[in-house]
Design brief:
By secondary structure, the protein is of the alpha/beta class. The chain has two domains: 120 residues, Rossmann fold; 95 residues, Orthogonal Bundle (Arc Repressor Mutant, subunit A). The protein is 42% helix and 23% strand. The chain is built from eight helices and twelve strands. The strands form three sheets. A five-stranded parallel sheet has the order 2-1-3-4-5, with helices on both faces. Strands 6-7-8-9 form a four-stranded antiparallel sheet, with helices on one face. A three-stranded antiparallel sheet has the order 10-12-11. Strand 6 and strand 7 form a beta hairpin. Helix 4 runs parallel beside helix 8 and helix 6 packs across helix 8. It is elongated and about 55 Å long. The termini are far apart.
Length: 226
């Protein structure tokens, strides 16, 4: 059975979602605020985190960033009524893997949960090490090593770095990258690709690694830094 961490402070919605998840044979733990969510995620293993944005004590954005800082790579699906593009991009940039707008159909929620579980369990099994310049990526563990620094990547960051390392110095188009990142057919948000690219690029540059360069009108490529 897959185990879900549901982070929602609206008691009526929380209970409704919990009952639906249990009826669909998921195991469910519940947190009503961000601090409790972080404590649970650090002490137990989950297949997916369902995370509300507006929470007591700290926002869902802050919770997502805290989990990623603690190297918790569990897929995060944000559930929120905030539907502006800037809100969605902020959610993805804070570490979320998907973003579902309230109100939503339970069938769509379950489909997105299953897609995240599928991706995280099969995406990188058996992938060999890939290298470029001073960087090595190990797909079996999602570990990226640049010089003396090693960091685990989120699922979408891992997809991107694998593509760039398999095709070094080649321009990868937006359509190629988006098809790989959202292969399950889920809705693609405006600026979502740019948000993921920007986050990965910052990590590479901070560690002294190669750069991800935008090629105007085409896409992106990985380049050695002079």
């Amino acid at each position: 059975m897959s185990k879900i961490l549901l982070v929602e402070d609206d008691i009526a919605l929380q209970r409704g979602l919990r009952d639906l998840l249990l009826a669909d044979h998921f195991l469910v733990d519940v947190a009503e605020n961000g601090e409790d969510a972080i404590d649970l995620a650090l002490t137990d293993g989950y297949d997916v985190v369902l995370l509300d944005v507006v929470l007591p004590k700290m926002s869902g954005y802050d919770v997502a960033m805290a989990l990623r800082t603690h190297k918790i790579l569990t897929p995060i699906i944000m559930l929120t009524a905030k539907d502006h593009i800037a809100d969605r991009v902020q959610g993805l940039d804070s570490g979320a893997d998907d973003y579902l707008i309230k109100p939503f159909a339970s069938t769509e929620l379950f489909a997105r949960i299953r897609a995240q579980i599928r991706r995280s369990s099969t995406e990188f099994q058996g992938l060999e090490s890939l290298t470029f310049a001073n960087m090595t990526y190990r797909g079996s563990t999602r570990e990226l090593t640049i010089g003396d620094e090693t960091e685990q990547l989120s699922p979408k960051e891992a997809i991107l770095i694998e593509l760039f390392l398999r095709y070094p110095s080649m321009v990868l188009t937006r359509s190629q990258l988006m098809a790989r990142l959202w292969s399950d057919g889920s809705d693609i948000l405006d600026n979502a690709l740019e948000a993921h690219i920007s986050k990965l690029r910052r990590k590479l540059l901070a560690a002294g690694g190669p750069d991800i360069v935008a090629v105007r009108g085409l896409g992106y490529r990985l380049e050695r830094r002079v």
